[in-house]
Design a protein that fits this description.
The complex is a heterodimer of chains A (227) and B (125). Chain A has 227 residues and is of the alpha/beta class. Chain A has 8 helices and 12 strands. In chain A, helix 6 (159-170) crosses helix 8 (194-207). In chain B, strand 1, helix 1 (14-26) and strand 2 (30-34) form a beta-alpha-beta unit. Classes of the chains: A alpha/beta (227), B alpha/beta (125). Chains A and B meet through helix 2, helix 3, strand 10 and helix 7 of A and helix 1, helix 4, strand 5 and helix 5 of B.
Chain lengths: 227, 125
């Protein structure tokens, strides 16, 4: 690793792991998102998912979305055990790598070294890797191909329903209100209200077949998608 | 009698106001709400809460400005404030955290995470 790494964590156990696994490297620790954002350094940042002032996932999303920090190499560590859904979601939110804590120390160090070397070799950070396909049992979703299938059967979703599905994927485990769906997913110029959202969600649920039940209504106020 | 910590929630979007109120209640808090920043400041002065959940994009003044006004009130100078908002720009997040926010939660949010943050802030150990 060329110049070390920034580590964002307030958890003594996570800090101790970083110090041990990355021994010999120059590490700088930040105990909160606020401390890190005061003057975000360049290079590699390893971010704990549970920070005192922000979730690591939100911090990654914020850093990736700003041109001043979009070139950072971002590694997110989440509470274990490992789940492919959490890993895919982290990459989708902009992380370059995801590890469930505690990862295997040698693998962790080697992957960070590879990542850092690739970043150093290029003009900046390698583009964040987005999964080409999400697989949840029999359900497969390919964002680039805009295709989804259950088993061998390709799902017939409208463009808007597919956009809704992608939005839910990106925001798995979060309560999504009708208002925010109208703001973020509905196309500009199309008049729509909360009832239109409900109808489209019903259509999406129906289109997803047995996986439709994964879009849950929360308190009758919004929706939550969790695989 | 057990006194539940009071949480003030300020949000102009009824859906999120209701969701956050239910999560705060589930966390064991008493809840008061306001749909505008100025009403929130007024309510906070009148009934100083243990925790304030504050949207940023409010119709009258911003959540940040509301937080600044609240901080000038002696009874609210140390009250934890959690911003919860769709505003995910780095400059906005930095500004919110510089104001001394106890948390910055992006909408749409994970209800379990919001509940954890409310518990941590409203029931300090």
């Amino acid at each position: 690793m060329r110049s070390g790494a920034s580590c964002v964590t307030s958890d003594p156990a996570v800090r101790a792991f970083f110090e041990s696994a990355l021994k010999g490297l120059r590490l700088k620790f930040y105990a909160s998102a606020a401390a890190f954002l005061k003057s975000p350094p360049r290079g590699l940042a390893v971010i704990d998912s549970s920070l005192p002032d922000m979730s690591g996932r939100d911090l990654v999303s914020v850093l990736r979305g700003d041109k001043k920090t979009s070139g950072l190499l971002l590694v997110l560590t989440g509470a274990g055990p490992y789940s492919s859904a959490a890993a895919a979601l982290s990459l989708e939110n902009g992380a370059d790598e995801y590890f469930a804590f505690p990862p295997d120390a040698r693998l962790f160090r080697a992957r960070l070294q590879n990542l850092s070397a690739r970043g150093a070799a290029g003009a900046g950070a390698p583009a964040a890797r987005k999964p080409a396909e999400y697989v949840f049992g029999a359900l497969r979703i390919s964002p680039d191909a805009r295709a989804a299938s259950v088993g061998a059967a390709r799902l017939k979703l409208t463009a808007l329903e597919f956009d809704l599905l992608l939005y839910f994927l990106k925001n798995q485990g979060r309560v999504v209100s009708r208002t925010i769906l109208l703001e973020q997913v509905w196309r500009q110029g199309i008049e729509a209200g909360p009832r239109a959202v409900d109808k489209r969600i019903e259509a999406l649920r129906s289109g997803l077949g047995p996986f439709g039940a994964k879009i849950r209504t929360v308190f009758g106020l919004g929706y939550l998608f969790k695989m | 009698m057990i006194v539940r910590p009071k949480v003030l929630i300020v949000d102009d979007e009824p859906d999120y106001l209701a969701i956050a109120a239910r999560i705060a209640a589930k966390a064991g808090c008493a809840v008061i709400t306001a749909a505008t920043a100025l009403k929130g400041v007024e309510l906070a002065e009148k009934e100083p809460p243990s925790l304030i959940l504050l949207d940023v994009g409010l119709p009258d003044i911003s959540g940040f400005e509301a937080a600044r006004r609240m901080r000038k009130v002696p009874a609210l100078s140390r009250t934890p404030i959690i911003f919860f908002t769709v505003r995910s720009e780095l400059d906005m997040v930095s500004e919110g955290l510089k104001l001394g926010a106890a948390g910055y939660v992006l909408k749409p949010f994970d209800p379990d995470e919001l509940q954890r943050r409310i518990r941590t802030a409203a029931f300090p150990s």
